[in-house]
Amino acid sequence: MEVVADETLLPVMEEQVAVFEHLYDRTNVELTSAQENQIIRKLLNKEVEVAVLTRQLTEQENQFFKARKFTPRVYKFATDAVAVIVNKQVSDSVITLDHLVKIMRGEKSTGSLNQLVFDNPNSSTVRLLKELAGVDSLPANGVYALKSNLDVLKYVYETPQSIGVVGVSWIVRPDNGIKKYVEGIKVLGVKGREGEPAGGGYYKPSQSNLADSLYALARPVYIINAEPRKSLGMGFAAYLTGESGQRVILKAGLLPDSIPPRELIIRK
Question: Which distant-in-sequence residues (6+ apart) come within 8 Å of 172 by Cβ?
């Protein structure tokens, strides 16, 4: 089975596939990553049947499947966070959502951090910030898109005046290849909009803050199974939403859709 995942979720999905193949040693999952727009295109063109995204399909996208008299099965299995990062040399430790929105709108904002760096112009992180800012395109100045989350980590590591936007799983448990860059950056606390739970203070993308809806840049994670028949995709979705898959989510720093139980044995 081939699974294509949002590139911002690649680290946690690599762990999921490794555990799944270990538990079910006769399975073979070929995991690839792509930007959100590319994944949607692959699904609609029947190039791939199982995808992991941070949004559900739109009504217009679902029409492609309805024309084939088929409805994809969609399961939420986690809540992800978009982390806002800066170089460790920067004195700032917090930022407001309004500040990010002003940059996205091309407006001047106070402070020295006015350069926003994304992984890719077609990524899910760009879409999220565009929706929050109410814009359809990126401004000509102040916002830059690279190629991947790894490129963002490297750029922020080398450019102290920049603000990076990455998926939180890239920085919670980094592998040896990117550990140097993660150690050279820090995650900012984000204050949401007034009147919302996340607007009551500055919150970092921790699991407790995600559970309490206190982090302004949280988003759901779905597995979309567009297999027209019962196959391995159903088993993989059941694994992700089951106890084993949810434990991997918990260890990866994301919020599981259902918190795995813990049994405590109390002895006298």
Answer: 252, 253
